[in-house]
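Q: I'm writing up a methods section and want to include an example of the input and output format. Could you take the sequence below and give the corresponding predicted structure tokens, formatted cleanly so I can copy it straight into the document?
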Amino acid sequence: MTPGGWALRAVIVLGPFLALVSATPEGFAPPVWLAVLVVLASVVFAYLPEQYVGSAAMVLVVGWWSVDVRGAMPLAVVVASGALLASHLAATLAAYGPRELQPDRALVLRWLRRGVLVWLVAPLLWLTIDVQSGHTTPASYWVAGLAVALVVAVTAATLYPTSLDAGT
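A: Here is the clean output for your methods example:
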């Protein structure tokens, strides 16, 4: 495997684990058995990036966040969202070809730009929620997040169209 392929697989493995443990400094520590399960699922995800096993690793992380962290909004959600997004994008890039293929620099940069644009929703939403704490209901967080995500997705698609959008 090429160095670029190894780097993508490292991001695939580390992303869900980092997302899981990112809230530990703020008092939300996952159980060890869950961390081991997430790492195992992430390793399989790195080996088979085009398979649905990656969804299992991410669902475990998001499930733990929704059960253990609940209505709290620690700053770690910004880190966790970035880690999950990075893992997903690395898997997308790794799935583009065989393991022996070096990831294309232009393709990596394109997905990196798209990922940064999508990730910008997290700090903006966290800041909005932090400023409005005590004034809104948790249901409005989801509505605001979906609205911001929609705007970012349309902006990203407009700024960085694919070759399918161009008709080539």
